[in-house]
Structure formats: structure tokens, C-alpha cells
Amino acid sequence: MLATTIYEDGDHRWIMFGRDPDKADGIIDTNQYMIQSGNQTILLDPGGIELFAPMLSAVLKFVPAEQITHLFASHQDPDIISSLGLWDQALPNAKLYSPWLWESFIRHFGMERIEYCAIPDEGMTITLNKIQLQFFPAHYLHSSGNFHVYDPKARILMSGDVGAALESVEAPLWVDNMANHAPKMKKFHQRWMPSDDAKLDWVRRARNLEIDIMAPQHGRLFKPPFVTEFLDWFEQLPVGIAVK
């Protein structure tokens, strides 16, 4: 599994995990993220059950298990959080932040020791050692209860399925040409994003953020000027049209 540091400033860093060449056929590739601040660490959308062993091995190269104090699940999908039952056994003291709407669903993945911290619809902010992380509402993009994570110090937005593209593990890590990349995102966004109103509301709020990196859960990451180019493209894209 590839581990790439995408931001580092002293003891504050972001690491992206993914592009696993050993993943099973028929399973989509996913990006997992780790934010570390001092002796506290949060894993964002830590992945499916099939990824637990390589993900744990990769994470422990950077931090010991006792410093993984927080988990985040943007929504209820199995590629996001079906590994929860195994993390529950591996982590001695952690909290899971996830939408209130999905608590009774996510608990089916197994959770005895980890504490469920329900995120209200309007979002919330948590402190991770010295930094503030904002859980940014992204409802109906694509899940009816859904959040993204914004780090105002690093100026990184973990954008879940917004900006996602399903590509091979050999694809580049960064978007380098929107004209070439947009066709790889189009069908995914039109099928999985059901609401133009929700999309436009998200774009309006995202434009108010300072974003140096937009980091989706699948596919390539975006840096300026491609962050703005993506927002422009997404804003005009008709979504929720698969049944028409």
C-alpha cells in the first residue's frame, strides 16, 4: 500500500494511504487519510474490512496504536468503514466521529470499545492536539447523511466522494489536466450525486474555504488551479440524471 505525505509542518502532517497493488479484483481502490498532530491521530474513512491488515501495517510505521485517538467515517458505505470491527479490537482508546443518521447502521460493522460520537447535521469542530478540524456538511453527496473534513491550518479539504474518479492503482496521484480528468469523473458524479440543490449549496460553501489540496476518497488529488477548475466543472454538471 502506497503511503504519501501530502502535508507536513512540524508535528502536524497528513498522510494518504492507497493505490494498493495487492487489492482483490472487483474491489474499488480507495484513499484513506491520516492526520497527526503531536501525540494524537485521526484516521479518515479508514477503509473496508479487506484493507485492514495492509492499512494497519502502513499506519503503524508512522504512529503507535495508542496514538490513534480518533476515527472518522464520512458516511455508512462498507468501503469507508466496514473495517470498524477490527479497528475496535486494535485500538485501546478511540472515538469514532460519524453522522448521527448512520449510527445504527455503522454499529453493524462491530463496535464494543470505540465510542460513537454522532455528528449533528450542521457539522461540528473538534480539537486534535493543537489543531482544529471542521466536519463540513456534504449531505446527499452522495449519502443523505454525509460529511467532509476541513483542516484550516493545512488548508486541506478531504472531500469524500466529491471529486472522485475510479481509476487503476497505477494512475498518477495528482490531477494535472482537468480537460483530460473530467471525463473520468462525469458518470460517477452524475450517478452517485442525486441533488443539484445539494451540489450547488456545497460548491457555494466550498468556495469560501481556502483550499490548497482537495483530497477525495477515490482517485487523484487536486491542487490549485485544479481545485477551482473542479468547483467550476462540478457547479455546471447536471447530477441525479441516471434514470432519465
UniProtKB/TrEMBL annotation:
<dbReference type="InterPro" id="IPR045761">
    <property type="entry name" value="ODP_dom"/>
</dbReference>
<dbReference type="InterPro" id="IPR001279">
    <property type="entry name" value="Metallo-B-lactamas"/>
</dbReference>
<dbReference type="InterPro" id="IPR036866">
    <property type="entry name" value="RibonucZ/Hydroxyglut_hydro"/>
</dbReference>
<feature type="domain" description="Metallo-beta-lactamase">
    <location>
        <begin position="29"/>
        <end position="218"/>
    </location>
</feature>
<protein>
    <submittedName>
        <fullName>MBL fold metallo-hydrolase</fullName>
    </submittedName>
</protein>
<dbReference type="Pfam" id="PF19583">
    <property type="entry name" value="ODP"/>
</dbReference>
